[in-house]
Specification:
Largest sheet: none
Number of domains: 2
Helix content: 55-70%
CATH topology of the largest domain: Tetracycline Repressor, domain 2
Strand content: under 5%
Order of helices and strands: HHHHHHHHHH
CATH architecture of the largest domain: Orthogonal Bundle
Structural class: mainly alpha
Number of helices: 10
CATH class of the largest domain: Mainly Alpha
Oligomer: single chain
Length: about 210
């Protein structure tokens, strides 16, 4: 009997299928059977490439976390140009896109996944959030060096407020697709960013 479609790049197609399941059905709906059904292949295909489902999820998260590095680099390159609040608004909107926001609760729900992520890389237990935090912190430090925010600005506290507040904004919406209002507007994100950095920007040298 048929064993499913041949996958030219099995790993990538399985990752893409997992993303679709995760976005549609949430962490509870993400099973090995759901992934292989979505990819249109036999269940054995996943286990030929990964020792078990948690190994698959670990590689999925690390792969998607690595993709954020390009976006993080773009944020750092924007230092010294445009408005600080606008740069951060654009970055948070991108870094907290649908896939990263969907992966964060997956990590939270699966203890074994967090354990394997910590083993795979330092700070990996909070992958995705760790990438966003590093990107924002590095950008703020660059802007402080350029004098665009106060020299005594507390980078760690600003980063925590921006990342925590941004995550809440993007994660706090109804998963019912018939009523889901979607991600927050750019104006809403900008209001958060402006409020968090207002003091540090106002106190910068003139």
């Amino acid at each position: 009997m048929p064993t499913g479609l041949h996958l030219r790049d099995a790993r990538q197609q399985l990752f893409d299928a997992a993303e679709r399941v995760l976005l549609r059905d949430g962490p509870n709906g993400l099973t090995s059977r759901a992934v292989t059904d979505e990819a249109g292949c036999a269940k054995g295909v996943l286990h030929r490439h990964f020792t078990d489902f948690d190994a698959f999820l670990t590689d999925l998260v690390l792969d998607r976390a690595a993709q954020l590095e390009t976006q993080a680099s773009a944020l750092r390159e924007s230092a010294g140009t445009g408005a600080v609040a606008d740069n951060l608004t654009s970055a948070l909107t991108t870094l907290f896109g649908p896939i990263p926001v969907a992966i964060i609760p997956l990590i939270t729900f699966r203890d074994e996944l967090r354990t394997r992520l910590r083993q795979a890389r330092p700070g990996g237990g909070i992958a995705i959030l760790a990438q966003v935090t590093s990107a924002v912190s590095a950008y703020l430090a660059d802007e402080r060096e350029r004098g665009r925010i106060a020299a005594d600005a507390d980078i760690d506290s600003l980063t925590l407020s921006l990342v925590g507040g941004g995550h809440l904004l993007f994660a706090d919406h109804d998963r019912d697709r018939d009523h889901d209002p979607g991600p927050p507007s750019k104006a809403a994100v900008n209001r958060l960013v402006t409020a968090v950095i207002a003091d540090a920007v106002q106190r910068r040298p003139v």
